Amino acid sequence: MNIQKSENNPLRPMPFPSLIFLTKISLLLAFVFIASACDDESNPKGKYESGVFIVNEGGFGSANGTITHYDPVSGDTEQNIFRNASGEFAGDVVQSFTFAGDNGYLVINGDNKIEIVNGNTFESQGTIEDIAIDKPRYMEVIGNKAYVTVWGPYEDGGFSLVDSYVLVIDLTNNSVIKKIQTDEGTDNLIQAGSYLFASNNNFGASNTVAVIDPSNNTLVDQITVASGPAGLTTDADGKVWVICTGDFGASNGGLFRINPSTLEVEESIDLDINPDADLAITPDKKNLIYTSGKSVYRFSVTSTDAPAEPFFEAGDVVSNYALGVDPASGDIWIGDALNYATEGKVYIYSSTGEFKTSFTAGISPTQFVFK
Amino acid sequence: MNLRSVIIFAVLLSAFVARAQRDSVVLKVVTVYGLPEEKYLSGSRMVLLDSGLQAQQESRHLGELLAFQLPLYFRNYGNGMLSGISMRGTSPSHTAVLWNGININSFSLGQADFSILPAVAFDRVQVHVGGGSARFGSGAFGGSILLSSAHRSSAPVVSVSQEAGSFGRCFTSLKTSIEAGRFYITSSFYRLQSENDFPIPGSDQRQSHAAFRQAGFVQNLQYEWSSSRKIKLDYWYHAADREIQPTVGNSGSTDEQQDYNHRLIIAYEQNARFGLLKFSGGMVDDKIVFNGMQSEILRWIASASHQYSFKKQWNFSLATEWNHVIGRIPEYDGEPVEDRVDVSASVQKSFKKISGSVSIRKPFITAVQTPALPYAGIDVVIFEKERTLLKVRMNGSKNFRAPTMNDRYWQDAGRKDLNPETSYAAESGLEFLRGDKLKLHASGFYQDINEWIQWVPGQNGVFRPRNVKEVNIKGFETGIGAKFNAARFIFHGNAAYQFTRSVTRKTLDPVQDVVGKQLIYTPVHTGSASFGSTFETWTSGIYAQYSGKRFTEAANSSVYALDPFVLFDFSVGKAWTFDRHVLDASATIKNIFDTSYMMFSGRAMPGRNYSLKILYNLNPRKNEHSKK
Questions:
Q1: Chain A environment of B253 (Cβ under 8 Å)
Q2: DSSP label of A154
Q3: Alpha-carbon radius of gyration of chain A
Q4: How far is B226 from chain A (nearest CA, A)?
Q5: Which of A92, A134, A342 shows the shortest C-beta gap to B602?
Q6: Closest in B248, B253, B555 to A343, CB measured
Q7: B492 bridge partner residues
Q8: Whose CB among A4, A8, B181, B514 lies 3.0–4.6 Å from B554's, allowing a Cys bridge?
Q9: Is A98 strand, coil or helix?
Q10: Can you tell me the distance from the alpha carbon of B619 to that of B625, in angstroms, rounded to the nearest whole number?
Q11: Is the model's pTM score more than 0.80?
């Protein structure tokens, strides 16, 4: 459902206002005043102070990436909040979205830029552009530094990645201050302990996790796991988990547990499938959630074997494109890109795998951000 | 009609007798051997692009001209970028573009890129509206566009033009036309470039990374042994080099594309007692280099045709065409080779008030099941008195589109077992003429397209082509053309409107939200209009095109729809004639009202912009071309 602002103005001039009418108007005014006062109390900073933000890539090359806002209390959705607040589509292929402080950062993969918005109102706060921002992917913020994974250029006359890196951006003046070389296809990243961990995916051709020390912005290590490191999360013990998507069609994906202090791989689990790229964790941080198409899997972080059976099947999902777990309720969210040409759908399942609801998002929903 | 005699038909362009070649008011005499194509398409509408307009806007690409003349829509991926046509609610691969009788749609993509078809490169542009596979082969669903080189006796011996415009636009053309004994030689060279760094309307930014340059060379050579035997060579080379215009707000784009197109056709024609016999051979070499990666489709073409008329009432045509297609694209499995052979036959019969034609074509394509493609049409004169004519027309056809080379041979995705798309099309219309002062037409059309090929995600999100959709198209179009004189002014105007519901009726794709929805980038409402005036050696024209809301999302979400727009262009010119010398100057304002619009999602188009053009013609000596 779209809840864009109504054009109807209750205060528009009336040709012959009767007394009764005026009374009605004042009642209405009072009501509006009270209602907005209430509004202000619940969302003093802006209408997007809380909720779930669905990042929709948009059509490739069509520059129509959007953010959908979902209010978990009312169940209402509002499409394209970036345009509603800032006037334009977010850009071409919105890859990811990161809240930091009062701001939100939209990483626009196709447009090679980062759009900055007020995290509560979504009003535009500017753009970060730099020649080094070439196919940006994900962003983490530590203090006033942003760390952005960047695929970098393709080789001449081909589509192979040849120069991937993590960019360090000073958010006080939005300028790039350092480029930290990694293996090709650096992608997801997460902060754990005193390091940043970035998975080098490269469509399954890389097999390492880069470790960056943010105190001096240097590459500390690249930990070898398996083909196609992708989603990252941390468990209750603060350990880093990475999911590897494996080689194409080879059913050799895996889960790896990394100690964020010693940088050792402490556990490796063969999944015997090619899982999707996203990795989520339940609110108690004791169970990993991952998917392969319609199949949703749950894996206890203390287990040493891959689950034999899926936790449940998301039967209606056509093209699984995003996974998230609500850190408050434990609800499992799946983004369905359908045929990548129509508006996608979002399915919400309870923490036990019962279907709860679904709604329409934008084209190719790719990420959920819970706030 | 006797084929031994030369059929002369006069094409009345707008108003009166020529002054300058540019004038859109020229009575031209074109010599055609054999029946003109439209005779075999009774019941259809065939529109001839005003050659005066074409000459005046020779630096523009064909899509830029046609959208102001007919209710058509073009998906332009920016200014000067890939431009695909949408005709009668169909997609860009559903219009066949033929150059001197050979299909020049890309055999890898299916569509023709109108941005690299500059109006300067051909002499004549005809648009056949509606289904026409029986005559034009694969892809003639929405219509067909026929480009041809025509030797004209009245053509200037030398013609030079120079144009300069906004955003670093610069165009030069040079044409020569020589008649030496039995040789006719016409050569032309053209060059266009643009920085294309236009200010993006409604924004404080300029478009980045959209510069383009194009150059081409056209050679026509004709040798006549006698009035009944001749050999013709037509060659066209076009090269384009462009930065790919990125989406609005993109920074740091580096994509580049070069296109190199060679087209050659050599034809032998013999007019004799037994009819008009033609043999031709040729080749088309299409190269696209994208960021240094080259894709090439090479075609060798041979064809033979014969036309015969019996008792001046029955006309018969038999034709066969062979295409040997070689795909040299790195993403293909190996270097696929495909043969396509078409055989076709047509019969045309004229009675006093009725003219009808029936055609049939049977294509054969390596390992593709293809249907036979009939066409039947009829024109009936309902009322004719003095200069007033009322005509009813109707036609029905079965059409097809062969799967493209990409559809069939793309590594790990292409399917050799795809069926061709097929369609049943029908239309019926009225035409009213009142001399050359008033022209009205209206028609309703209907088309069912089956086995529509689309790349859809399958297992693991891998996109593969499939015959997934059934599309139903219903619509009507209407148009008016009028001209009148007032004092020493001559005015002529045209307006056309089309309503098209083009809807997915069924899909095998699990995503059913698209069923019952309008196809993307096919506006329901489209219109075009022009109004020209001539005063002595002055001419001016106002041109308008309109496009309604276009959905870019397959389930017709308003969030992603492009807003309707109307564009207006204006041009004014003056010609000076001194004996055989003609000097012509003109100025054009495009997008007068600085309208912000998009033809494709996320791709900016320029606001108001200007160009100035100077043309010099050296006309032939009188009597020089007198022998006929």
A1: 112
A2: B
A3: 22
A4: 53
A5: A92
A6: B555
A7: B483, B532
A8: B514
A9: strand
A10: 11
A11: yes
